[in-house]
């Protein structure tokens, strides 16, 4: 089995799941998979992916895993009790070769948000690992050499720390398990932790994560008005966590609309803001100017960078911003899938909530996702975004 525990996922899947349990347990959603890397024939591996999904849906959390979750102060007893009964249900997953594009697959998840939200990360990890099983073997010695070179560069800047955000696009589960203790032991406090809940428990690391795009996307259908959907999502998050997990995601409908909504109230309520698309230097300057314009000292807030980072970009961003604000870095594929072969660029995004289309409008071309052009045009109009093209 590729996935051997329901904790082998990103923390933000569980934190969002708790909010859904308490606030929107009846919401219905749909997710759709996309491979952004051209020329990848996943269709020939459908049977193997199917078998891994079947195995995934047999998993339950054991008493030790549940006890560990209870020790994290932001998880409430009723949510952990719910997880003790929870399992993923295969009936919510559609998987088949595409009838329209040779080599592509149709992979969709549709059902109650509460029961489908944990599918995304393990499904992406499964697709990725199945693909690499059938490629020429990677040079693990080269992978370790590259990793050690990154560690050496980071150790030259002792006040720069990173976290692992690489579960969904890792080369394999075993490789992930191999590199995390190496990073922990070599970097010490410079290795701040991991988004992966299972490995956080396994290797005594700090689990990191707050919210993903889907949380704000869902409020496009759940909120009172579309124009207020971001504000409704941030308010719901603050009500759920009461000061914990206070990092807001900024790029669901672009930085301009985000800053309009992220007013003095939210700037004081949240500890930081996460970047996930567009020029990170320009983004950081905009956020700092926004905070200063509200008379908030940026040095009291954390800017979290997590978009396609490598160690060179981490160090450049750190040098540029570290004395002007707090900075944090979530490094994904460049840590967990840098052994030589080209990594896949795969995503799985929410496209519908309660029967209504939802969208992500990225600050970077090609990272948005929506299955309804009419709705996307309306969203752009409501938020004052320029038309596509």
TrEMBL record:
Domain Nicotinate phosphoribosyltransferase N-terminal, chain residue ranges per copy: 7-128
Gene3D superfamilies to which the protein is assigned, alphabetical: nicotinate phosphoribosyltransferase
Annotated pathway: Cofactor biosynthesis; NAD(+) biosynthesis; nicotinate D-ribonucleotide from nicotinate: step 1/1
InterPro entries hit by this protein: N/Namide_PRibTrfase, NAPRTase_N, Nic_PRibTrfase, Nic_PRibTrfase-Fam, Nicotinate_pribotase-like_C
Phosphohistidine carried by residues: 213
One Gene Ontology molecular-function label: glycosyltransferase activity
Description of post-translational modifications: Transiently phosphorylated on a His residue during the reaction cycle. Phosphorylation strongly increases the affinity for substrates and increases the rate of nicotinate D-ribonucleotide production. Dephosphorylation regenerates the low-affinity form of the enzyme, leading to product release.
Keywords: Glycosyltransferase, Ligase, Phosphoprotein, Pyridine nucleotide biosynthesis, Transferase
Domain Nicotinate/nicotinamide phosphoribosyltransferase: residue ranges: 160-386
Superkingdom assignment: Bacteria
HAMAP family: NAPRTase
Family membership: Belongs to the NAPRTase family.
Record's protein name: Nicotinate phosphoribosyltransferase
Native organism: Luteimonas notoginsengisoli
Underlying gene: pncB
């Amino acid at each position: 089995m590729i996935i051997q525990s329901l904790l082998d996922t990103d923390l933000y899947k569980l934190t969002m799941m708790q909010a859904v349990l308490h606030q929107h347990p009846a919401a219905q959603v749909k997710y759709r998979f996309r491979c952004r890397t051209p020329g990848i024939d996943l269709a020939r591996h459908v049977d193997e992916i199917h078998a891994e999904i079947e195995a995934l849906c047999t998993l339950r959390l054991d008493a030790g895993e549940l006890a560990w979750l209870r020790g994290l102060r932001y998880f409430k007893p009723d949510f952990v009790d719910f997880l003790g009964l929870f399992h993923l249900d295969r009936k919510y997953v559609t998987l088949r070769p595409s009838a329209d594009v040779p080599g592509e697959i149709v992979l969709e998840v549709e059902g109650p948000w509460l029961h489908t939200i944990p599918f995304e990360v393990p499904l992406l990890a499964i697709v990725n690992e199945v693909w690499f099983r059938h490629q020429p073997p990677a040079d693990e010695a080269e992978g370790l050499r590259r990793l050690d070179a990154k560690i050496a560069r980071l150790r030259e800047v002792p006040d720069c720390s990173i976290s692992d955000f690489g579960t969904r696009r890792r080369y394999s589960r075993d490789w992930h398990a191999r590199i995390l203790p190496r990073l922990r032991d070599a970097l010490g406090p410079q290795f701040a932790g991991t988004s992966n809940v299972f490995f956080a428990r396994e290797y005594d690391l700090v689990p990191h994560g707050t919210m993903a795009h889907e949380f704000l996307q869902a409020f496009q259908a759940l909120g009172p008005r579309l124009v207020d959907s971001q504000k409704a999502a941030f308010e719901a998050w603050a009500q759920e966590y009461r000061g914990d997990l206070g990092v807001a995601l900024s790029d669901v409908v672009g930085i301009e609309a985000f800053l309009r909504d992220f007013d003095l109230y939210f700037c004081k309520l949240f500890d930081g803001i996460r970047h996930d698309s567009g020029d990170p230097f320009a983004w950081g300057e905009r956020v700092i100017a926004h905070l200063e314009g509200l008379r908030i000292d940026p040095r009291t807030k954390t800017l979290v960078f997590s978009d396609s980072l490598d160690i060179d970009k981490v160090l450049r961003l750190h040098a540029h911003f570290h004395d002007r604000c707090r900075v944090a870095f979530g490094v994904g594929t460049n840590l967990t899938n840098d052994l030589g072969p080209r990594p896949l660029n795969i995503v799985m995004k929410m496209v519908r909530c309660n029967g209504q289309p939802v969208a992500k409008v990225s600050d970077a071309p090609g990272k948005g996702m929506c299955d309804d052009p009419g709705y996307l045009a309306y969203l752009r109009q409501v938020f004052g975004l320029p038309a596509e093209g």
